[in-house]
Task: structure prediction
Amino acid sequence: MKIAFFDTKPYDRAAFDRYGEEYGIKFKYFEAKLNEDTAELAQGYDGVCAFVNDTVNAAVIDKLAAFGIRVLALRCAGFNNVDMKYAFGKIHVLRVPAYSPYAVAEHTMALLLTSVRRIHKAYIRSKDFNFSLAGLTGFDLYGKTVGVIGTGKIGRVFIDICRGFGMKVLAYDKFPAEGLADGENIKYTTLDELFAKSHIISLHCPLTEETYHMIDKDALAKCQKGVILLNTSRGSLVDADALLDSIKERHVGAACLDVYEEESDLFFEDNSGHIMEDDTLARLITMPNVIVTSHQAFLTEEALSNIAETTVKNIVEFFENGSCPNELCYRGGVASDCKSGKCF
Result:
């Protein structure tokens, strides 16, 4: 079985080669992202493996279908880069619904601690033998209220970490997790109350039409002055221009971003020798109270291994059985995991 593997990075290959050899799959690695111009590379393959910043729109889907490709295996949980409505009935879309919630949750806390204790600034100073403490005063996380939007696996792990620091949790989810709230230290609430009462807000929800720019000008205005915003989920949950304005107005105290809404042509690549044309991202990075990492929250050895294993097993199961429990279906106007065992 031959699979065309797009947007390849050096850290992808070891785990996929290992599981591919074990299950009889040969991957052809392409560094190019999947889009209308590169879809031709998939001709002659049995399936395609794509990542978060590959573009799988109607034109790409038509090309893949014309090549006889039946399966698109996403090596990620998110699928907002796929036109699921158009894909339904043309190509089977598989995903990795969970790989390591600990990796993302731990990175989120690492960003928060770096920000509030000024670790990044202290590190740069000490490299120049500057051991002054001026400007490095932080604050305790103990007793602070964190608002967690999205209480799936990652959100719940992040809540556990926050509780370990003695923080109080306000949670919001359209589908609350049973047994999570205790009424005292962890409480489900409305978005408005979460915005108003949280010292820190962390996003752990998927990107949908409903959640697009859920953190916009109006939402930020409802937050208390000095709020810290964490986003390790999807870039377009946050209106970056509104966030920048709120930081400039001294309303948002700090922002820690592992994702950015216009990241697809920037992240995962070395752009150090190029002029940054995205003015919003450039301004955010220059802010002393903003930390940006390059969509690396998932990047642990454990997560990479889990992603490869699940992706390979998804492909094998689909070709052996004609179905896969990690297949995405588009029904009733929304995309969700296949419940019937056969989508079309």
